[in-house]
Amino acid sequence: MAGCQELCFNVDHGYLEGLVRGMKAGILTQTDYHNLAECETLEDMKLHLQSTGYGRLLSASEDDLTVTLLDSKLRESLLAEFSCLRSNALPPLSTFLDYITYSYMIDNVVMLITGALKHRDVAELLPRCQPLGAFDQMAAVGIARTPNELYSSILVDTPLAPFFQDAVTETNLDEMEVEILRNKLYKAYLEDFHSFCKKLGGATEETMCPILEFEADRRAFLITVNSFGTDLSNAERTVLYPACGKLFPEGLRLLTTAEDHEQVKAVADCYPDYKLIFGEPEQGSDFKTLEEKFLEQEVKLSTLAFLQQFHFGVFYSYVKLKEQETRNIIWIAECITQRQKAKIHNYIPIFQDRK
Amino acid sequence: MGTLLRGEEMCLAQLFLQSGSAYDCISELGELGLVEFRDLNPSVNVFQRKHVNEIKKCEEMERILVYLLREIKKADIHLPDRDVNPAAPSPKNVIAIMEQLQRLEVELGEVTRNKERLQKNLLELTEYTHMLRISRNFVQRTAEREPLQVHYEEFPFLEKDTAMDYNSMQRLGAKLGFISGLIQRAKIEAFERMLWRVCKGFTILSYAEVEEYLEDPDTGEPVKTVVFLISYWGDQIGQKVKKICDCYHCHLYPYPSSNEERNDVVEGLRTRIQDLHTVLLRTEDYLKQVLIKASESVYTWVVQVKKMKAIYYILNLCSFDVTNKCLIAEVWCPVSDIPKLRRALEEGSRKSGATVPSFVNRIPTTDTPPTLIRTNKFTAGFQNIVDAYGVGTYREVNPAPFTIITFPFLFAVMFGDLGHGIIMSVFALWMVLYENNRKLKNTRNEIWNTFFEGRYIILMMGLFSIYTGLIYNDCFSKSLNIFGSGWSVNAMFKAGVWTNEVIRGNHLLTLDPNVTGVFRGPYPLGIDPIWNLASNRLTFLNSYKMKMSVILGIIHMSFGVILSTYNHLYFRKKYNLYLVFLPELLFLLCLFGYLVFMIFYKWLVYSAKDSRHAPSILIHFINMFLMQGDGVPPLYPGQTGLQVFLVVIAVLSVPVLLLGKPVYLYWLHNGGRRLGMYRGYERVRRGSEEELYLLRGDDMEEGSSHSDLSSSGERCSEEFDFADEFLHQAIHTIEYCLGCVSNTASYLRLWALSLAHAQLSEVLWAMVMRVGLRMDTTLGVLFLVPVFGLFAVLTVSILLVMEGLSAFLHALRLHWVEFQNKFYSGTGIKFCPFSFSLLPSSFEHDGLL
């Protein structure tokens, strides 16, 4: 059966897989980053990016280059690539690609609600949303007062609706509640995506499940670590843990009882993958935050997806890598504009050992 | 011929360019395309070089030009002729051009913005009129107490409410509000749902589609839109409704409260729309004028900016001298072009009015120069065939001049058909005659361009095919009887061998050449046409073509081996002549040359009379290797002795080939050092060793500077590695000796392809044409028309195009593998001069020009 899947894969998805692998070749290399880091001004960066896959993306703009402009241009280019993939996709790949956008939609919803709570104008917030997760009803999100209202009047038509099943409450939305909402949504989303990938089976399952499991565990860890010092109780925390990761169920139970960073570390020590992340930094290397380490690990996992063929993981990985690349470029650009040359090398390189 | 055989002699030259005139000098060089610049600052980052700002400025200008071209294209204005070739603008003029461009851009931008604003305005007004016109129906309908077009079934009481007139609503104390506008057709359903969910039914939505397509202001695409009217109760709901409208990007327009107001507004809108139309028309006119003016000089600007950018790019490759007063550039230049180069520099200095002239200085170098082989339109195609395998090493023998003859010939051996050859050469001749036609030249069709580039090759191939077609006596698989066959059937009767009974009784008859008068001597040109009737034609032709392929192959390969002597002599490696060339040639000729000899011997010695005793060459050849031959009668006296002698020589040449060169080099290397030490002792002078190296370096300089060994004697002696050399030679020996066998066999493809071609064309004739010709009623004439059409199409598509391509590929292989590996290394780098005409244009790439 598995062999049959590989036989027929190219009939429907071969073109897009080829396309995405071609796009992957355009991801900036170590030398590109090296050159970018040597730039003095944003104009120099523009010159350099011209020689990469971004080409004339920036040259057409007449205005002065700013980091915000750069950011939006990079996002636009990713959106253009993604929508090209999406519009050519056939099921089940199209569903898979939709799943990728859901996480961005969740982020957008949460950001808009937070903005509305702070009485910011929607028009001001919209450009800052991740365009990959844009949907029609986005601008109306601010109307809602409670998660229930949010669900029943606005999001019920969106693909996010199924994730709301657990998240519907009548309490008023405040910042804490929004964070809880985000995590609940994410939990539902990750579990759903995970089971979807499981259902697809074959190489997709083999590549995607580890990535999603890692994602789930990362969320569990981060929720725990971030909950220290807030009035989020242990029991409330437990509800938020996505139950599809490697930590499930034993690790999550341990995490529930964790009270400080050391205890979290003790939990991580039981899992070789996470032991490294929580481990002490090596002598001589720069200090990295937990999130950076997680991001590094994510990049590593994503690059692994390209080693196999005939699966959908490459699409997910490509989007994630491209997102990381955008973050890297923005980081370098920020360092350049703020003259923080010392920190410029803190980006996370993709495809390190490629020459 | 000399340069075509070996390529141009190149030299490294230093250009000292006065900083004032450097720009003009390089511009002059770019027009001529004489030299290839070398990067003198490879360590400097791209954006840290000197003229980055100028390049940025050029890019800015390019951006404006792209914008201009796009606008011109959008306005459908024809670009004027592109034959102008303006020189690169002087730095002073650049500012003027820049200003001009910027002014144009600002002007255009303003006008376009204006136009867009007006268009948007117009669109809004149109939308408003549509809205008013359509929403009037809603009110009328409600007034007539007709059910609304859209209503909520779940809330029938609401319908009742809408039916009430406004006065009664107001009397109820609720504040009735209206919001009306337009929304895209695709979004209306979601909009409606959301409206209902959020407002819990405190609204009524009625909508109707606009019949026309309205333009979407963002994308400019025509979209179907819907006019809607929301009636709501209360301010709270109103706020929410407005938000939802925002979120769905509705275009909202004020809803007139009474009929009179509505009429007024409609009236006002009509006049405003008319006004806008006239203004818009004027703006478009003006825009067009601006663009037409710009289009006149836009191509000149494009060329100028392109040249300027290239010049600055080259200037970035140059380095400054110590005094900072002049730029130094290093260039590869053909030796014969140096006077031209000098003149160009003088011209450049004169143009810029520099007081100190720029000058050229040849510098010695140990680097291998790039290869330049000058071609004309005829030889270019053949040179391309060779270059596709590998660009010749500097000053190596170039196979292209020989390819001009051998390539079409080998092709034609496989494609031998007079008729097909004529069609092919007529097609090629047409391309050659109309080669200056712009329409043929400037197409973007890649397949067509391939054919067009190779038009001379195709012409030669066609002509040679005509020749081989005559030799094979094949014209669309039929034979031509021009001179009258040399065979006579009549004579068989006269001699009494055949009688009428014999003819009636036998299906097949054999002509006997031994009967007098039957065979009157060979046909003057090629194969006798009588073979076309013979049933053993194929056997005869196979034997003939197979032998011919082997003969041609051996000649071709021996020629390749002989060509290698030119390389050995030119690169001053005389030892290669004795240690490589000679054993190679002996091996080839003793084994396969002898085979050719036997073929000729058999052809010449055995005639029709004793053809029964004609021996099999194959058996003799095999016996030659087995050193036995007692069973079969010898071809000629002393055959066994000669054969043993030849085999021994061939076998002996293998170890010579294998060991000769490495051992000799080893001896040279060791002997040289011993000699040096010996001299050192004798003269007791420290410099003697050095001197010796210099001496040796001297006599090797000319040759070895290009060879793969190394540039000077010193390095040569240090880098010599016996094992390495031996390994290379061993590989070469094995490759050559095995290659001789397999390559000879490989030439049999000449026979195979020629057979395939002949058989295919015969099948085509038999299956298609003959069917048409067999019908002998009057209808048959009509039937012949489609049959001939089919025959012609199949002939062109299968026999000419497909068979031609396959024969082309096989000829290509025979040249690349079988011929060129005997002498051609092809490891050079092509000389690519800095020339404006060779620069790619980014505009063409974008399809703007």
TrEMBL record, chain A:
One of its GO terms (cellular component) is endosome. GO terms for molecular function: proton-transporting ATPase activity, rotational mechanism. The keyword Ion transport applies. Keywords: Hydrogen ion transport, Ion transport, Transport. InterPro entries: ATPase_csu/dsu_sf, ATPase_V0-cplx_csu/dsu, ATPase_V0-cplx_dsu, V-type_ATPase_csu/dsu, V-type_ATPase_csu/dsu_dom_3. The keyword Ion transport applies. Subunit of the V0 complex of vacuolar(H+)-ATPase (V-ATPase), a multisubunit enzyme composed of a peripheral complex (V1) that hydrolyzes ATP and a membrane integral complex (V0) that translocates protons. V-ATPase is responsible for acidifying and maintaining the pH of intracellular compartments and in some cell types, is targeted to the plasma membrane, where it is responsible for acidifying the extracellular environment. May play a role in coupling of proton transport and ATP hydrolysis. Regulator of osteoclast fusion and bone formation. Belongs to the V-ATPase V0D/AC39 subunit family. V-ATPase is a heteromultimeric enzyme made up of two complexes: the ATP-hydrolytic V1 complex and the proton translocation V0 complex. The V1 complex consists of three catalytic AB heterodimers that form a heterohexamer, three peripheral stalks each consisting of EG heterodimers, one central rotor including subunits D and F, and the regulatory subunits C and H. The proton translocation complex V0 consists of the proton transport subunit a, a ring of proteolipid subunits c9c'', rotary subunit d, subunits e and f, and the accessory subunits ATP6AP1/Ac45 and ATP6AP2/PRR. This is V-type proton ATPase subunit. It comes from Menidia menidia (Atlantic silverside).
UniProtKB/TrEMBL annotation, chain B:
Keywords: Coiled coil, Hydrogen ion transport, Ion transport, Membrane, Transmembrane, Transmembrane helix, Transport. It is a multi-pass membrane protein. One of its GO terms (cellular component) is vacuolar proton-transporting V-type ATPase, V0 domain. Residues 94-128 form a coiled coil. InterPro entries: V-ATPase_116kDa_su (IPR002490), V-type_ATPase_116kDa_su_euka (IPR026028). Pfam families: V_ATPase_I (PF01496). It is found in: Membrane. One of its GO terms (molecular function) is proton-transporting ATPase activity, rotational mechanism. GO terms for biological process: vacuolar acidification. The chain crosses the membrane at residues 409-433, 454-472, 548-566, 578-601, 644-667, 779-802. The keyword Coiled coil applies. Essential component of the vacuolar proton pump (V-ATPase), a multimeric enzyme that catalyzes the translocation of protons across the membranes. Required for assembly and activity of the V-ATPase. Belongs to the V-ATPase 116 kDa subunit family. This is V-type proton ATPase subunit a. It comes from Menidia menidia (Atlantic silverside).
